[in-house]
Hints:
Elements: E1 21-26, H1 42-51, H2 89-97, E2 102-107, H3 120-139, E3 145-150, H4 156-168, E4 176-182, H5 195-204, E5 208-211, H6 229-249, H7 252-255, E6 261-264, H8 271-285, H9 296-303, E7 304-307, H10 317-327, E8 332-333, H11 356-371
Parallel strand pairs: 1-2, 2-3, 3-4, 4-5, 5-6, 6-7, 7-8
Helix pairs in contact: 3-4, 4-5
Amino acid sequence: MNVELRERPQAAATPLSRLAIADCDIHPTRRLLADIHPYLSKRWQEHLQTFGLRYRQPYQNGPAYPKGQPQACRRDAVPPGGGKPGCDLDFMRAQHLDPNNVQLGILNPLSPSGQGFQNTDFSIAFCRAINDWQVAEWTSREKRLRASIVVPYEDGAASAAEIDRCAGDPQLAPHFAQVLLLSRTAEPLGNRRYWPIYEAALRAGLPVGVHAFGYGGSPITAGGWPSYYIEEMVGHAQCSQALLTSMVIEGVFEKFPALRVVLIESGFAWLPSLLWRMDKHWARLRQETPHLRRLPSEYVRDQVWLTTQPMEEPADPAQLRQAIEWIGWDRLLFATDYPHWDFDDPSRVLPLQVAEAQRRAFFLDNARTVYGTH
Length: 374
């Protein structure tokens, strides 16, 4: 995994990477929770101060599985002036955007974003505030960054309204690259309660990104709550497999053939075996789903992309090449997960000798195609 794709800098101001990249998973946050107050009405400021944040899950005092560092972040990502990793745009420029030659960065706010709140009205208000905050504090100050429209996904109508607001405002629309959902929802994402979100994304001409994590209220496994953080991390792939299966079999891609979906931070090497299994079973059980007119794998090949982080790392790199070639070099979007501890360094992430066109597609061109930034 130690293959160099860039030269070491000759001076501090010199970009480390000769290859321009798109980073499709950057996590901005606030220095203080109170920083979101200017974007909330007085009612919701008082609600936040009085009741705090309450999610649709059985635990209320932080994550169920403690991480090695606060918010799963790198120690060196704490800004020099203090605050949480990911809260300082100038430091993000100096530590990540400039040295890694990031030409397009997709913001995916997570902690907290307003998604998954138990109080639906508060979730709606907080998501709207986060969207306005992204534009005011990030994308209007840094042209390389694009925001995600954060939506209160358990309310399809409210989510659609927020997408329409952001995409329909000429001042806001240029700042947004996608609609953001999380992978652990109250019901599988193929369920029709979520279809208004897909319809609104299509009206806006935006892809739907589904990021790992979420607050659906159910355990992350079919057998209950696991014991360890490592099980949660491995479980991201399981959750993405479940939601993708649901979207295919429920007919989301058949109903919305122009819909683009990006699966974020759940790896990708699991996709071939899932689609082999889906195709095999659908061939024998297709009478149950007459609304599907194509093999499940055909829908996915046409309408689904995956970010590369966390990159699977088999002992034999040739096996990684086989997985990528089956999925398609045009289906993968490079991501670092900055500023989290499992950050993927673009200089070491791809342990393969590949053609220049494939490398450019992997690091930049695929993202420009999906997000329409050519």
